[in-house]
């Protein structure tokens, strides 16, 4: 909504309102960037695999008011994960970590939890399938599962698109007639 409001404000003297509304209605979001995948049992699943840095994951976290189950981690590009600590502690109900950066992310979140004297359920996972399966168990109705790695994909996947496509396949194969009813 903020992007739409900004675009309308910038173009208000250049584009007729009717044309702007038509463009907004026909806009196709970018694949793997806060991409809605599916709603399962009143839980909305989002693929944000293109978020390959902490700052991009911060944007993903800020996009939701609902409780968040966050899937995070991947290839280590030697980035600073400290900026993720406070927002994760404040916005995330369960954190599922995977990949090379899982320990770094765990450390900054643990430090922030200690600073705020709070607790958070944190899980270390080995595979994306295991992670998605656990996220399904943990997510409550009216919440969001956000796959926003804050890391590159090269530790386990060809690239961010491959990682995002594998995530979407796992989510789309869930029980309601999918190929993996027990996932």
Structural account:
This protein is α/β, with parallel strands linked by helices and about 180 residues long. The protein folds into two domains: about 1-30; about 30-170, Mur ligase, C-terminal domain (Protein-Tyrosine Phosphatase, Chain A, Alpha-Beta Complex), CATH 3.90.190.20. It has seven helices and six strands, in the order ααββαβαβαβαβα. It has helices at about 1-10, 15-25, 55-60, 80-90, 100-115, 130-140, 160-170; strands at about 35-40, 45, 70, 90-95, 120-125, 145. A six-stranded mixed sheet has the order 1-2-6-3-4-5, with helices on both faces. The protein starts with a helix and ends in an 11-residue tail after the last helix. The mean pLDDT is about 90.
CATH class of the largest domain equals Alpha Beta
CATH topology of the largest domain: Protein-Tyrosine Phosphatase, Chain A
CATH architecture of the largest domain: Alpha-Beta Complex
Portion in helices: 40-55%
- Mean pLDDT rating: 92
Structural class: alpha/beta
Main pleated-sheet profile: 6 strands, mixed
Euclidean distance between termini CA atoms: 34 Å
Widest β-sheet, arrangement of strands: 1-2-6-3-4-5
Radius of gyration in whole Å, from Cα?
17 Å
Strand content: 15-25%
The number of helices is 7
Shape: globular
**Poorly predicted residue ranges:** none
Number of extended strands: 6
Would you identify the CATH H-level superfamily of the largest domain? Mur ligase, C-terminal domain
Succession of helices and strands: HHEEHEHEHEHEH
Number of domains: 2
Key words describing this protein structure:
single chain; 183 residues; alpha/beta; Protein-Tyrosine Phosphatase, Chain A; six-stranded mixed sheet; 7 helices; 6 strands; 43% helix
């Amino acid at each position: 909504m903020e992007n739409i409001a900004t675009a309308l404000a910038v173009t208000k003297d250049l584009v007729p309102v009717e044309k702007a509304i038509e463009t907004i209605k026909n806009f196709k979001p970018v694949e793997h960037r806060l991409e809605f995948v599916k709603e399962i049992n009143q839980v909305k699943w989002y693929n944000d695999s293109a978020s390959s840095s902490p700052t991009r994951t911060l944007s993903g976290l800020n996009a939701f008011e609902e409780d968040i189950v966050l899937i995070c981690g991947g290839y280590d590009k030697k980035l600073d994960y400290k900026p993720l600590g406070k927002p994760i502690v404040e916005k995330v109900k369960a954190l599922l970590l995977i990949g090379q950066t899982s320990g770094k992310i765990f450390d900054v979140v643990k430090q922030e939890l200690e600073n705020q004297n709070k607790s958070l359920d944190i899980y270390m996972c080995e595979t994306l399938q295991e992670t998605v399966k656990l996220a399904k168990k943990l997510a409550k109705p009216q919440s969001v599962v956000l796959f926003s790695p804050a890391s590159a994909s090269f530790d386990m996947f060809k690239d961010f698109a491959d990682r995002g496509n594998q995530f979407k396949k796992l989510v789309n194969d869930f029980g309601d007639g999918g190929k993996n009813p027990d996932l």
